[in-house]
Amino acid sequence: MRHRLLTALSLLLVSSASYAIDEPHTAYLRLCAELDLAALSEIEMAANSGEISGEKIAAAFFSVMAARNACGEGRVDQAISIYDDVSLY
């Protein structure tokens, strides 16, 4: 899941010009939304593969929920860390 952090930071840097006109909080919410979407897509693919146990799928989903809550509370560094640690394998 380290690739999510690198992707997120790259997206933030590349699109920093568009974020400059937004409030900083909005930029972090967008970053969290992109990480959330990537994590949920990965969970969905794993669930559809049938190779991952339901317990691992549920644990990953609850980790995403924890990251979502952290981001919503402004703890973006913690949210990124949680997204990065979501593991299905």
The span between the termini is 11 Å
Mean pLDDT: 80
Number of strands: 0
Order of helices and strands: HHHHH
Main sheet properties? none
Note the total helix count: 5
Helix content: over 70%
Structural class by helix and strand composition: mainly alpha
Low-confidence stretches: 12-21
CA-based gyration radius:
14 Å
The fraction of residues assigned to DSSP E strands is: under 5%
Domain count: the total is 1
- What overall form do the CA principal axes indicate? elongated
Record keyword descriptors for this entry.
89 residues, mainly alpha, single chain, elongated, 5 helices
Structure description:
The protein has 89 residues and is mainly α. It has one domain. Helices cover 81% and strands 0% of the residues. The protein contains 5 helices and no strands. It has helices at residues 2-14, 16-19, 24-49, 54-72, 76-85. Helix 1 (2-14) crosses helix 5. It is elongated, with a radius of gyration of 14 Å. The model is unreliable at 12-21 (pLDDT under 50).
